[in-house]
Amino acid sequence: MDCKSWGSRDIVFLCIIVLSLIHVSLGAKVRHFKWEVEYMYGAPDCQENVVMGINGQFPGPTIRAKAGDTIVVDLTNKLHTEGVVIHWHGIRQLGTPWADGTASISQCAINPGETFEYRFKVDRPGTYFYHGHYGMQRSAGLYGSLIVDMADGEKEPFHYDAEFNLLLSDWWHKSVHEQEVGLSSNPFRWIGEPQSLLINGRGQYNCSLAAKFSNSSISQCKFKGNEKCAPQVLKVRPNKTYRLRIASTTALASLNLAIKGHKMAVVEADGNHVQPFAVNDLDIYSGESYSVLLKTDQNPYKNYWVSIGVRGRDPKTNQALTLLSYSATPASKLPTTQPPVTPRWDDYNHSKAFTKSIYALMGSPQPPKTYDRRIILLNTQNRLNGFVKWAINNVSLVLPSTPYLGSIKFGLNNAFDQKSPPDNYDSSYDIMKPAPNQNTTQGSGVYSITLNTTVDVILQNANALAKDVSEIHPWHLHGHDFWVLGYGEGKFKDGDEKTFNLKNPPLRNTAVIFPFGWTALRFVADNPGVWAFHCHIEPHLHMGMEVIFAQGVHRVGQIPKEALACGLTGNKQN
């Protein structure tokens, strides 16, 4: 087909898009998976504990697909006493909002013994992952990797010889059920810092691979007979380029990754290509993913530490370590030098320098120059009848029993609060001090957004309940990517938009707000459905740090009955 023969430039452009979609569709496959979710015994950090697994695996199986493929997962709940859903983190769910995997938002929780079919298309290549989105099941170990390769005939804008996948997480010995009870108690009981950091589900509690560097050996960590917690060594050949796909599904910890003696080039962030830039280490927040290129150009007769450490919180958790092992050197030969030192936990200038170095690759989609609606979201820690909560514009979200997608689709106005949450907060609020009135409210209202309009969201951080305390919050948007237009210190004010980057801002699905600062985002509401937008720190989400965006729900097609067979929608389906 010759697109030039179609006439005008716009028609030619449409023709090219159609042909590209046909090209992707012709090579696309339907990939089927049958999964059973259940609790099982495991030892992620060499200490036996109960973990949540899929088909007997922890972490869950890695899904590998190509752009344009359709993923079908038949998920059976074998937990016996609790529901379950799985969110496909970073997949936009175009045309399939009921497959987003958010309990009480896009679907009913899958009851014990039931099977639910997730069917969705992965439309873009990138480094993604999946995780539980019901209660605090992500903390219990319900997660795994989802890698989408380029469609047949397409190439990445960078070269590499091989790749490794690193899924990062944190791990507690206290059960998530006990953690949930503590968060919902008066007096409040915090979950504490994690006992271990895990790389691909493996860590070492109360054991340092790096102890006594010159004469240590892996055997000191007692892996014999317990190889499932032994670190997965990255075995490499000299003078090659490796792609490291790095994703963080942590429940709490912000992390820093470094490889001794090696620089990395960042090339992808949250499934979007970025202008390559070199780093000695990188900060990664919960919900984020990156690809970096690593050149194995060091002495091939040595091995090198790969270290993961905690950022943004005073660390009480040891580094997670593994090895970059050159092919000429046995993995049992540990380095004689100290692992990379994680930057000080509160060195936010280091964090900001990395985050502000991320720009979209030339040729990436640019944001609209103006917005139709601006929503400013003040993040505060509050109290509700003595219980500690997190709130947005003084509303702590409580999810309804009937999923929003169904209640809005079928006009069930009594299923959730009909009053929309506020688009802004009181301008007199002093973000630098604890609030004089620390009380908050609860609600289940939604932000109704006109379809195909442009929305600016300003995430505004503030002082928590304690004086001089403001925490890092990584915010994740379902169903969309957004442009990160900029960051600022203190309170966002008129005129700050003059500093926005409208030329090459990165497209992301997760963005961080730093202590006592703000982050500006822009997205186009072009995906009909009901979408969560929330802090990706699991206990903060559990305590109400979330808002709901609804757009074009009348345009959503037939919703599978199984998605809405609960609450008031059980008898309302067509």
TrEMBL record:
Residues 1-27 form the signal peptide. Residues 37-150, 164-327, 433-550 form the Plastocyanin-like domain. Keywords: Copper, Disulfide bond, Glycoprotein, Metal-binding, Oxidoreductase, Repeat, Secreted, Signal. SUPFAM superfamilies: Cupredoxins. One of its GO terms (molecular function) is L-ascorbate oxidase activity. It comes from the Eukaryota. Its EC number is 1.10.3.3. GO terms for cellular component: extracellular region; plasmodesma. Pathway: Cofactor degradation; L-ascorbate degradation. It is an enzyme of class 1 (oxidoreductase). PROSITE patterns: MULTICOPPER_OXIDASE1 (PS00079), MULTICOPPER_OXIDASE2 (PS00080). It catalyses: 4 L-ascorbate + O2 = 4 monodehydro-L-ascorbate radical + 2 H2O. The keyword Signal applies. One of its GO terms (biological process) is response to hydrogen peroxide. It is found in: Secreted. Its cofactor is Cu cation. Its main location: secreted. Dimer. Belongs to the multicopper oxidase family. PANTHER family: FI03373P-RELATED, MULTI-COPPER OXIDASE. Ascorbate oxidase involved in a redox system involving ascorbic acid (AsA). The oxidation of AsA represses responses to high salinity and oxidative stress conditions such as vegetative growth and seed production reductions. Negative regulator of defense responses toward incompatible Turnip mosaic virus (TuMV strain UK1) by preventing jasmonic acid (JA)- dependent accumulation of ascorbic acid (AsA, AS) and dehydroascobic acid (DHA). May be involved in a redox system involving ascorbic acid. This is L-ascorbate oxidase.
